[in-house]
Here is the input.
Amino acid sequence: MRELLVGNLTWESLPHEWSTIGGTLTFILLGIFAVIVITRMKRWKWLWNDWLTSVDPKKIGIMYFIVATFMLLRGGLDVIMIWLQQSLSAGTSHGFLSADHFQQIFTAHGNIMVFFVAMGFIFGLINFIVPLQIGARDLASPFLNTLGFWLYVAGVIMVNTFFLFGGKYAATGWLGIAPLSGTQFSPGVGVDYMIWALQISGIGTTLGAINFIVTILKMRAPGMKLRMMPLFTWGSLCSMVMAVTVFPLLTATLFLLFFDRYIGTHFFTTTLGGNAMMYTNLIWMWGHPEVYILMLPAFGIFSEVVSTYSRKSIASYWSAVFGMIGVSFFALSVWLHHFFTMGAGGDVNAFFGLMTMVIAIPTSVLVFNWIATMYRGRIKFSTPMLWFLGFVGTFAIGGMTGVMLAQPPADFQLHNSLFLVAHFHTMVIGGVIWGIFAGISYWFPKMTGFRLNERIGRYAFWCWLVGFWMAFGPLYVLGLMGATRRLDHYDNLNWQPFFVVALFGGILIAIAVGLQLVQIAASFIQKRQLADNTGDPWDGRSLEWSTPSPAPFYNFVNIPKVTSRDAFLQMKNQGIPKPVYKDITMPKTISLGIYIAGLAFLLGFGFIWEITWLIVVSAIGIVVCIVLRTFDEETEYIISAAELEKMEKARTQKLLARLRHDDTYKDEDMGLREFYKSVLTWSQDFVKNKRWKTF
Amino acid sequence: MSKPMNHEESVYDRTMFGFWVYLMTDLLMFAVLFAVYAVLNNSTAGGPTGRELFSPTAALTGTLLLLTSSFTCGLAMIAVRKGNKNQVLFWLTTTYIFGLAFLSLELIEFTKLIHEGHAPSSNAFMSSFFILVGTHGLHILIGLLWMVIIMAYVVSRGLTSNMMRKLALLSMYWHFLDIVWVFIFTIVYLRAFV
Here is the structure.
């Protein structure tokens, strides 16, 4: 009876390691706190109507950022634990983590950082910026977009579910390499959690990618040819085309692994003809392009940033575009370099080694293009530009170590060593993460209406840069000294100092992340001073700067007509046309995305714990929701010209009032000391005047 | 430049294009399953091969049923274009019956195999066979479900432009499954007998 109701769920599976229990308590307390605050402030309705069910890609983008930030902290905590363990656990000491727990931590760290941090931020940026850059009011399918976001959230919850319901997380490494991930060697539910978290969010990614391809190819402003598209949009297009090419591979592969585990098939097992090497091939056919899926939008961001802050158009638009297309093309034919040591033979290894080295060419074209753009530009060293400069140097070193790894003979030595770990972190942190930071600080005014604090931003940048090299420099050295990756314990005491330096680097990065949070908080405190009243704070070139900041939900009063690259720059030179008010059609809010994602989560949960009734109910529920949505014909509403004019006038009035008022503000970004003071004043006020009662 | 499209036309245009992209992603999933089948095709671990297990007559009958259903689905689309609701319903029902017959045949094949002790868990070859053909069967099942629902809506709402768009998607999906089946028929069944 109990098995019928709750499947394999038992009390014994609840978490009992202290660090896991800490995580559980944190999640529960955060949840309770959020519920209390929202209830006291009577914000449930607002939250549901204005945010959760919104189909506005700008709001969805911001929700992506919030979730991804939480996951960044969660994945960051994992890595601090990894570093701490590695700097303690030498010789006779065994650190504070068991081997099994350590394995779960680095597995979760990898899954979370790639799927839920990098992908989350990249999708957030694409959501927010691409429609604005191409002059569209919404996406081709607003429904698929909210569904994609909520499936991502369902994946996020799934990856953390073991905190609440117990069992363990996978201890297989982030790709769940077979046959280790089969039931023979991983009998618990850990791998199932991983499969379903990736499966659900991966399907969301595929849907989102289809949506963006259609949006970019079919919904550009009149006159905007492909050859006039801003480079971020180009990067996103390349990235999304790659996503629809490889994410189905991930989905299929994970299903095969799932069948191996659930119904006992023999795809990747060690017995009855199964072929574990096939899993490695399939997963890396997705896994390698995935890195570039993250990287290409970042390339696009850097192109925009360099061009704007050097006050020049990009040095060679076409070589940038072909560089991106080249990268995405070659990226699909290099996957085997992840397992030269598997024994595919000299010819195969040589081919993939060569392809891997070839990919450095389009990438270098891009790098030289950015440098050429800076040449003779009037460069402004704002934080986005700092991120870019940090990126160029770091990325070049990462690229060179990549070419080293691409040579099969060298790879036989470096394979699975910390050298490799340092290499790909150089690419993903130096390339993707800093690209995301550059993008967020560059477009922050468009999202909130005020720019980010520059001063604290610079502190954060330097902490990141120094922290990064302090953390990963030693790993390169350790790798050359022969330290393999994923070590929970080592006997060679000569390695320990390097691990300790790496730990301090990690702590510096943690400080940097803290500073970034402070930076955002300080910018909120000073938002009157930092306000962007023009909508174009950086003297921008592309269409997103032609709308006010923050952009209204309909993006543009009139869809601009485009005749050249740098469309907005041309508009500014020729004079911006006066708005003409006409009726516009906008999509209505949709709640079914949340329901479907919730049911998808329950479906996965049912499979993990083998709760049959839950599987059946949620599968039927999903079908019903999709049918309801597909045959709902009232999905749009019209904003009349009069309403539009009223909204626009109200906005202008508010802006004018603010401008009159703002003369009194001194124009300087606060530093850490002032931030500390204003927080202190606020908290004193909060306690003294019993402010919590007003909640 | 061609003349600008109105709202409805552009929705049609986008939906069609988006659905094509979706079909390509689905095709890539099948590509993985085909590749897996190609790799594991001889990994019978001492069990019987496809030649000993498959029945060519059943496979051919299934193929003919599915091809006919694709044809009648095409006739339904011609009826859609003519705006003849009753004909649309008639041809869709015919398509449905052929599709159902195909699916039943497949289920009979599967149950027979499992009864004789050749289950997906028997060996790698059987796993890849069941998952490749079964995934196609699952797609057919979804298509049949979709067809019933769409017929119900055609009855209640008539052939509005929205319904015509949805019917066009359904027919694309159905033809797509047909093409995938042609590959399955060739690679799984015909190859077993050459």
User: Anything to note?
Assistant: The mean pLDDT of chain B is 94. DSSP finds six helices and no strands in chain B. Helices of chain B lie at 7-40, 50-53, 56-82, 85-115, 124-157, 161-193. The domain at 55-193 of chain B is CATH 1.20.120.80 (Four Helix Bundle (Hemerythrin (Met), subunit A)).
